[in-house]
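#lab-general

N.A. 3:47 PM
ok so I finally got the sequence cleaned up, no stray characters, all 171 residues accounted for. can someone with queue access submit it? mine expired

B.Y. 3:52 PM
send it over

N.A. 3:53 PM
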Amino acid sequence: MADNKTLSLIGMTGCGKSTVGRIAAEMLGYRFIDLDEAISEGEGRSIPDIFSENGEMFFRELEAKYLSDIAEAEVSNGGTVIACGGGAPTYEKTRKVLKEKTYNVWIKRDPDSVTLNEEVLRRPPIYGDINKYKELLKTRETVYSMTAHTEIYNEQPEKCAEELCRLLSKI
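B.Y. 4:20 PM
back already:
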C-alpha cells in the first residue's frame, strides 16, 4: 500500500463499512476508526442531531475536517482502517482528502438486503424512505467509483474482510 497505511472504506450506509472495517483492522493489526463515531464523540452529539440542528452542509464540513485530522494523525501509526459515512465522498473537500491521504475501498452490497434493515433506513439522510436509499445509491455510484482505488462486494462481513486483507497484501 505504498507509504500510506491508512485505508478508508466508502459506500452507502448499511453496506457494512464499520463491521468489515473492524474485522479487517483486527486481522491486519491496524487501528479502527469509525468516522461518524469520531465526529459524534468530538462534537458531543449524534449525527442525526447534527443534521437536524445544523444541516447537511455543516455536517459535511465537520466530516472533511475530522477525516483530514485523522488521516494526518494516523500517518505515523502502523496502519489504520477508517469507516467513512455514506455521503463522505460526495463532498468535494472530503473526496480530496480521501484521494490524497488514504487508500480507498468501495464496499458494495445488494441494496435490497440493506433496505431490509430498519435501523439503516432510520439514518440520515434516508429517514425511512427505501426509494430515497435507492435513488441516493444511483446518484452516488459515480462518486464512489471515481474515489475508490478498488471495490469489494460484501455478502458476508468476515469473507469481505478476508478479501480486503488479501487485496491489501498485493498492493
